[in-house]
Structure formats: structure tokens, C-alpha cells
Amino acid sequence: MARSATSPAGGRNLLLGAWERLKSWEGLLLGVLVVIVIINSLQAPAYLSIRNQTNLFQLFIEKIIVALIMTFILINGEIDLSVASVMGLAASTLGRLYELGVPIEAAFLIGLAVGIACGLLNGFMIAYAGLPSLVVTLAGMIGYRGLAYILLEDRFIGNYPEWFSRLGQQPLIGPFPLALVIFFVLLVGAIIVLQYSAFGRYVYVIGNSREVARYSGVKVRRVKMALFIVSGLVAALAGLLYAARLGSVRGSVAEGFELDIITMVLMGGVNMYGGAGSLYGVLLSILIILNLRNGMSLINLTGHVQTGVIGVLLILSVLAPNLARNIQATLNRRRMRHLAGTLSEAQESP
Amino acid sequence: MHMRHISKSFGATQALDDVSLSIYPGEVHALIGENGAGKSTLIKVMTGIHQPDQGEILLDGRPLQIRNSAAAQDHGIAAIYQEPVIFPDLNVAENIFISHRDRGAIVRWGRMHKDAATILAKLDVKLDVRMPARGLTLAAQQAVEIAKAISLKVRVLVMDEPTSSLSAHEVAQLFKLISTLRNQGVAILFIGHRLEEVLEIADRVTILRDGKWISSALRSQVTTEQVIQDMVGRQIEDFFAKSQAERGDLLMSVRGLSKENVFSDINFDVYRGEVLCFAGLIGARRTDVGLALFGVEPADAGHITFAGKEVKIHSLEQALKLGIAYATEDRHRFGLAILMSVATNITLPTLRRYLTALGLVRQSDEYATAEEYRQRLSIHAPSVKVEVGRLSGGNQQKVMLSKWLNAGPKLLILDEPTRGIDVPTKAEVHHMINALAAQGLGIILISSDLPEVLAMSDRVLVMREGRQMGLFDRKAATQEKIMTAAMGQNRPAMEAQP
Q1: Percent of chain A with pLDDT strictly greater than 90
Q2: Residue B238 domain-assigned (yes or no)
Q3: What pTM did the predictor assign?
Q4: Which of A4, A179, A281, B34 has its CA 20 to 30 A from that of B369?
């Protein structure tokens, strides 16, 4: 009797422990990352060099910058599909203006302003006109991209002043180029704002429930408006950095980036419906994607295969918590049945 | 149709306890009871949505198992609810035949339109069957629902508060329709909140209270007074009795508060240290008055004086600044961020107090406040950092109260604060309301629970469908008086009762 009572309990503790660890999504991501890094460094000794790691970031730097603000937006229960088109529009604006003889510095600032304008428009439609962000930003994705094509038609604009082209590639501080420095500065800022400030708190609460936030005196519209404006600005900045790195601009710049960006955020454990997730998780998810791709390149897997693997990973990441919950529920039911069985046994044989 | 000794419980709540009911062809049987008396559960058992724990259902003398609503339909049992279930983009005929599965794979439009017209003619309803249902009035939509039931050869028709959103004229139309059905031999179970109406249409009356069968009688053999007595006559000794707090100064006075199509001409005063109850049935628009005072859905007209100053409340920020807080009846939709921690929820409306100069949240202060409330209201949570969604309903309620108490309100509006929570927690909440009043808060308690209203109130304001039906002093308020006012029966004979 005593044995049968203790053994499931012991098993339960173990399971519970595993469950708690798995439930901390960040913990799981960290584990996966460590495994990838170990395998990679066994494969290629140069893998861990600062040069390789910097390069690795360089390839995705624009996307991961935008992923930071996308994290806010998804936690807020919204989505911004227009980011890649804003990147393209800002870059195209810069190219066109430069072509017309506007100094590159002014063109850069106007490019950022265009991003803010796009964000304002998105934000207004979502926060004040009350339209769903999926539709508004889908329209934005098409519309802003269209504008970019109108500006440049099918031309490439290149031959920027040397300092601008260097922005993207040359080391600025130590071995790190400007874009990477910007990323880390934004990362620290984003973590402070999202995890420790009142604004960040409101982002989460609105993502939980707009109505609860409203009934608690949170200015829901202002928060959403601010998020989309910043999203436009950050996307424009990323687009301009991308232009600098490529050294030439055309209408199709950054096409399709929005999906990669959203993938990074979702794999970071941010709830698809808003209200939960963290920047730590997103950072880990970014590191996993970068290192995994790098590792796959080391063993000569093509880009297409890499993309496929990332896709499978995303599905798994959405599946895993559900699966874990179902397994837990089944175990609970079994345990209850077992308990009921033990009880009735005990009653029958007092 | 007979229902015998039906019992049904959900968890620890006994929703139905040994209820028996018989419905005869060609008869309108009214089912009456307060909110939570078990009427809805009984209907759901009849229509196969719930299975009874005990008891049996007989149709034509044969026992019957109703496993789901499709089975109920096969036996000729159908229900019509408060809000008609229609498909706005389909036309009248399509709506009528929406659940038919035996008309072949191909729609024969001509035949369908003809059949629909025949059914409507039988009901003496004039409607174009080709018209989309979108443009129909509520009454016409209900006629379509009834036609739908008839097309399914209904024998027992359950009507759950079909009149609650109809105008007087539309009610008359509906009653004509019910009479037609009755004359065609359909058995009708009618549930309503407006006692006059119910008694007008009913041939037989059954009263439920707290899930128990109280009485059944022919309409001709009961009086309105008896019905009300049966509905409310329960023991109230178990309830917490309010200790009378000293009534302080006038805190708020409201005159002629109105909002178009929602409520009109509401007048009351609230004093510090007083509990003013808003009583009434569901749909009395008490919550809307609360939301108007909280600035979420501002009123269009009326004067409010708060703490001696004439004020207009247009926004929630204003209300909070004045010191008005509102704890919602719908915790999940409006009250708590379920995925967030207890502490986060408690400090949400007052987050500004916990910020450093740089706008960062001082989490240690936040936890300290939350911890204080956890102990003061004995919130059962392992820590204030756990997600609020993992607490029980009663404890969630306490978290929500903490959230608003922390805002330091002068006037606290509590909307159904004890609905759906267990008895000990309920007593705790009552005790707390008392303590708050004793500290000099003005409290507006919106409650559909009559014993609670009687136990807790200093004064009771009764509403019915957006209108103020009466304002009673604690001494003058009785269950009968409140229920009479809430049901819209203002009879001098009742007023004369002590």
C-alpha cells in the first residue's frame, strides 16, 4: 500500500521538475543554443572566433533590429506585416533623393521620417480607427512596397559616398560595425523599456486584454500608436542600414523579411495572441537561428534546406508547449484515476 | 411531457434539486424564478445540452434520453432564446429551413419558398420569404425562429425570455403568435422576467427557487402576491448581517442621470459610510449606471455632485482622479489580466506611484503593496508573483478588490462582487464591505442576490429596464417590495404590507 502511494508521487516530482523547466521557454531555448554551439565548434575551430560571430550577426543584422520592436508589437497582441516594405521604402527614398542630388545626410533623415510617417498611418488606423492590425499592415506591406517601386522603377541606385557604404561593413568600435553597435544599444534599451518600465507593463497588460487595460485607466490607444510609430522608425533605420551594407538600392530591397522577423519573435516564446513572452527569449531565438544557419553552412547545406529547417523548428516551437500541456493533462487524469482506485481499495479493505 | 425528479449539479453547486414539471399540449406553462433559480439549467436538460444527474424525462408516457440538441429536435423539442439565432445574410425561407437535413442535396428554391410561405401563413405572419433576414425587426426574427421550430414539427417549444428585448407592441404580436401555437396543440414552456406579461399569457405556473421546485398551479388559482412570495421566500439567517456604520457626510448626489436608450432619470445620494444597493433583475441596466459613474460609458445627461462640487464624468481618468473606483462583475473580460502576476494586477491602476524618476517600475515596492493586500484580504496564493489566472475565483475576486482599494477610492462601486464565489469567501467579502463602509467609504453595491441586498444595504435602489423603480430605506425594504419593484408590479396592496 505504502509503496504504491510513494512511487507515483516520486515520479510526479520528477515530471513536475521537467515540466517546470520546459515551461520556462527561455531555459529550453538556452539548452538548444548550447547544443548547437557545441556541435558547431566541434565542426569548425574558427566558428567561435569573434570574426565569425560578428559576420554571423552581420548577415541578419537588419532583421534582428526589427525583431526587437516586433516583440513589443506581438506581445501587445498586434502584428506589423509592413516592416519589410517600410525598410524598402526608406531605402528607396534615400536612393531616389541621392539620385536627385540631395546630400546623403539629408536623404538619410528623410528616409527615417518616411518610416515615422508610415508608422503614424498604421498606428492611426489601428489605434484610433479600430481596424485590425493584420489587415492594416497587410495593406501597408503592399502599399509601401508599391511606393518604393514607383520611386525607383527597376533601377539600381549605387555609388554612395564612401563613409555611407562603410556604415554597414567597417568596424566602428573594436571589431564591431555600426549596425551591430546599434543593435546592442537598442537591445539594452528595449529590455529596459519592456521588462522594467511602466510603458512595458502596459504593453503586456493590453496584450492580455485591451478591455482590462482600459477599465484600469491605461491609455490603450496612445500605447498602440507609440508602438507603431516606433516600429516604422526602427524599420526605416534598418532599411537604411541595409542599403548601406548592400551599397546599392532598388525597389525590392528587404522583400519578404517580415516573415523571418516574425519567425524569430514567435520562436522566442512570444504568445501569438499577445500578453506573454520576453525579449530574453527572442534574443535566444535569434542566436539559435543565426548559429544554426551558420552551422548548416559549415556542413554545406544550401540556403533552401536551412530555411526548411527553420520552418520545422518554428512549428516545433509552437507545438511543444501544447504537447507538453496535453501530456501533463493525461498524466493528471491517470493520477486521479489511480488515486480514486487506491481510495476505493482502502475503503473496501479497512 | 413530464420531467420527474430532475437533479443536476456542477461541481459543488446544486443547480437543480429534485425538480418535477409537466407540460401539456395546447397549454402555456410559465416557469418563474429569480436569477440563478435553475430555469436555464432546466431548459438545457430539456433540450439535451446538459444531461441530468438523476431523474427521468417522459414524452407521451415513454421515458426518453435526450443526448444532444439534435436528438431533442428529433423528438420535437425546440427552444427559442432571448436573442434570435438568425443568419442575417440568408433570406427568411433559408433561415426557416436552415436545420433541415432531409430535403435532398440540391436546394429546390421554388418549393422552399412555397413551404416557408405556407408555414408563415399558418402562423398568420406576413413576411416576404425572399427578404434577407438582416432587415427584420426583433419580433419578426422571433417569428422566423418560431416558424423554424414549426417546420421541424415542434411539439414542445421552450421560450427563454423571448420578450426581454421587445417593445410593448412587439410583445403583443408575439403573444398572438403564442396563442396561435397553443391552439394548434403545441406545448409551450415560457420563461419571463416581467411578471405581468408572464401571468397574462400563462395557463399554468411553476416556480423555482435555488434549484428547487416550490410550487405549480393553474394560473387561475394563483395571485401575483403568492407568486412573488414563492419566488423570494427563503431563509436569510445564514447571511452576514451588516453592522450599522455611522452615516457620514453626503459624498455624491446624482440627479436625472440619463443615457439614451440605456437608462433614464436616475436619482440618488450616497453618503460616506453607507452601502447603497442597486437591486434588480438581469437587464435592469444597473451595470450601465455604474459604468457611467466610472466614466467608461459616460451618461449624456444629468447632474452629479461629488464631495460638494458639481462634476461631469467624461472619462475614466476623471473618475479615478475624483476617487471613484468600479470593480467589474466580469472579472475575465474587464477585471484582471489573467497571464500577469497578482502584484502586477493590483498595482495596475496606480502604477504611477511605483515609478522611479526615469519611469521604471520599483518592483520591490510593488511586491510590498501586493503582499500587504495578500495578508489583509487573506488571498490564497503561493506568492504575489504567480499568475492571477492560477488562483481560484474567490481569490481572483479579492485580487480585483485589492486593485481598486489600492487606488484609495472615496466611492467604490462593486458590481456583483460575490457572484460565483464560494460561501466562506462570500462572507469574507461581505465582512470587508462592512469594514470599508466603517472607514468612511461610500459604497454602491450592485447585486442580483436579494438576501445579500437585504443584509448589506443601508438603502436599496431598485431598477427595471433602465428606470428607477424605487428607493427603499433599510427598514422599509423587504424581499417582496424589492422583487415587486424589480418585476414592474407597483400595486398599492403590496406597498401597504409591512
Answers
A1: 49
A2: no
A3: 0.74
A4: A281
Identify which of B207, B198, B95 has the alpha carbon closest to the alpha carbon of residue B140.
B95
Cell numbers placing A101: 542630388
Residues of the domain holding B450: 250-496
pLDDT band of A84, cuts 50, 70, 90: very high
Region of residue B478 (phi > 0: left; psi between -120 and 50: alpha; otherwise: beta): beta
Average pLDDT on B228-242 reads 60
* pLDDT at A158 exceeding the cut of 50: yes
B157 and B273 in a single domain? The answer is no
Choose the closest CB to A275 out of B335, B339, B348: B339
The count of structural domains within chain B is 2
Residue with the larger pLDDT of the pair B166 and B131: B131
Please state the separation of Cα A210 from the chain's center in Å. 22
For B375-413, how does the pLDDT look when each residue is reduced to its tens digit (9 = 90+)?
988 888 888 988 888 887 788 889 999 999 998 899 999
Average pLDDT over residues B238-251: 67
Are A286 and A273 contacting, i.e. CB atoms less than 8 angstroms apart?
A: no
Residues whose CB is less than 8 angstroms from the CB of residue B87 and which lie 6 or more positions away in sequence, other chains included? B94, B95, B98, B133
Number of CB atoms found within 10 A of residue B237's CB: 7
Q: Give the distance from residue B410's alpha carbon to the nearest chain A alpha carbon, in angstroms.
A: 17
Note whether A198 contacts B403, CB cutoff 8 Å.
Answer: no
Query: Is B14 contained in some domain?
Result: yes
Query: Quick one: how many helices (H) and strands (E) in chain B?
Result: 17, 20
Residue B213 shares a structural domain with residue B274: no
Separation of alpha carbons A192 and B144, rounded Å: 59
Minimum-distance CB partner of B360 among A196, A211, A275: A196
Residue A286 confidence (pLDDT): 94
- Position B262 scores a pLDDT of 87
Neighbours of B207 (CB within 10 A): 24
- State the cell numbers at A112: 527615417
Classify B411 as helix, strand or coil.
strand
Task: Report whether pLDDT(B493) > 50.
Answer: no
The pLDDT score that the predictor gives to residue A128 is 94
In A, minimum Cα distance to B315 occurs at A217
CATH number for position B456: 3.40.50.300
A340 Cβ neighbours under 8 A, 6+ residues apart:
none
Whole-number Å distance between alpha carbons of B426 and B423: 5
Domain-terminating residue out of B232, B261, B290: B232
Instruction: Judge if B206 and B93 occupy the same domain.
Output: yes
Mutation to test the B interface, candidates A23, A215, A221, A273, most B Cβ within 10 Å: A215
Residue B237 lies in a domain: no
Cβ atoms of A89 and A104 within 8 Å: the answer is no
Nearest residue to A289 (alpha-carbon basis) of A115, A36, A65, A55: A36
- Lay out the sheet containing B275-279: strands in order across: B309-311, B301-306, B250-259, B263-271, B467-473, B459-464, B275-279, B442-446, B411-415, B324-327
- Tell if the CB–CB gap between B334 and A218 is shorter than 8 Å: no
Whole-number pLDDT of residue B496: 34
pLDDT digits (tens, 9 = 90+) for A288-320: 999 998 888 888 888 888 888 888 888 887 777
pLDDT band at residue A332 using 50, 70 and 90 as cut-offs: low
Task: Give the helix ranges, DSSP H, for B439-497.
Answer: 450-456, 479-486, 492-496
Residue type, A90: A
Nearest chain B alpha carbon to A273 = B339
Domains in chain A, start-ordered, CATH in brackets? 2-348 (1.10.3470)
Q: In which band, very low, low, confident or very high, does the pLDDT at B103 lie, cut at 50, 70 and 90?
A: low
Judge whether B100 and B119 are in contact, CB under 8 Å. Answer: no
Give the pLDDT confidence score for residue A197 in this predicted structure. 93
Please give the mean pLDDT across all residues of chain B.
Answer: 83
